[in-house]
Amino acid sequence: MHRHLPSLFHEFNEWRNLLSSIDDFHDEKPHTSTGVSLYEDKDHLYVELAVPGLVSDEIQISFEKGVLWVKGESKKTEDKEKKEIKYHFTSSQSFSYRVPLPAKVDEAQTPNAKLKNGILKVIFEKARATRPQHIQIKEEA
Predict the structure, then answer these.
(1) pTM, rounded to two decimals
(2) CATH assignment of the domain containing 90
(3) 130 CB contacts (<8 Å, ≥6 apart)?
(4) pLDDT of res. 116
(5) Calpha distance 114→47 (Å, rounded)
(6) Residue 69's domain spans which residues?
(7) Where are the alpha helices (DSSP H) in the chain?
(8) Nearest CA to 103 among 111, 95, 93?
(9) Looking at the 3D structure of the chain, how many domains does it have?
(10) For the segment 106-135, what is each residue's pLDDT rounded down to a tens digit?
(11) What is the reported pLDDT for 84?
(12) CA nearest neighbour of 97 among 72, 114, 124
């Protein structure tokens, strides 16, 4: 057994070098970020969701019974060749958000959705009953 130790270390180093060269070859490391922000003003409720690297065709949005559902999936395939070795990479990214809305929104109004720089912004109209109303005070004589 004592004689086999150097060859085991040699094999380990060969595997480590191979994995390192694959990392060097595929220099784009996957980065995933998730996040949800909710905020509101007098008339609207805003939901912002992080969807890095996705385009609108890869995202599905639905709204039912006060819950916003956002699902997305991206699949990328890449072929590269380096030093007579061919590499085939397939990566897949998927996510699903379930966001219960804290304020009553007007379900008769279709929400507005915008995608910019990896941030999906969904804008809801608040229901009339939940909007703050200004009450004017009248002076009596």
Answers:
(1) 0.60
(2) 2.60.40.790
(3) 103, 104
(4) 93
(5) 11
(6) 30-130
(7) 5-25
(8) 111
(9) 1
(10) 888 889 999 999 899 999 998 887 667 778
(11) 76
(12) 72
